Amino acid sequence: xxxxxxHPSTLSVQEGDSAVIKCTYSDxxxxxxxxxxxxxxxxxxxxxxxxxxxxxxxxxxxxVTLNKTAKHFSLxxxxxxxxDSAVYFCAASRSxxxxxxxxPGTRLxxxx
Amino acid sequence: GAVxxxxxxxxxxxSGTSVKIECRSLDFQATTMFWYRQFPKQSLxxxxxxxxxxxxxxxxxxxxxxxxxxxxxxxxxxxTVTSAHPEDSSFYICSAFxxxxxxxxxxxPGTRLxxx
Lengths: 112, 116
Description:
heterodimer, A: mainly beta, 6-stranded mixed sheet, 5-stranded antiparallel sheet, 11 strands, 54% strand, globular, B: mainly beta, 7-stranded mixed sheet, 53% strand
């Protein structure tokens, strides 16, 4: 089955700097890759996603890149703000938006 | 965006009792809902896929007789933890799959279960 790895497990950046989180997946049939932000005691919130027919997607300060050949995808957050501090999870699915396998998560701390 | 609610947001129960958690999609219909479990500082682990009008599909290692799932309508799925034990204490999160306007899962706010 699918296995998703995520690095780093923790990341601290200064406010205004960029943050990059990387995920790798094992199932070449996976075709949908969302990124979720989870704040303490809350459910995950989708922040951006990408499908396998696209190499890059951007939404304001957030971007995701996908390398299907290498089977990895990355989340890029620019001009980080303290409110970006949270745990970020990547996921992979071979059935569109269903049957996710989540990565282990990255705890991002943005220092003021 | 679409809204998914869960009730209760937290519950404390005695060992051996059963607890029901509700998951509702408030502004869309969901043929498929998912139930996840998340232990402290860990990732979300899919427990089961709930399909409206049919039996749930459980992931390997998840006891179907212990975690009863009912998806009786297009907006409601319930998870019942039967004969709960302290090791069942966890954060339970549901999601609803919306197909209109693009396939996407919307997550609920989670339910914190503590079994004494």
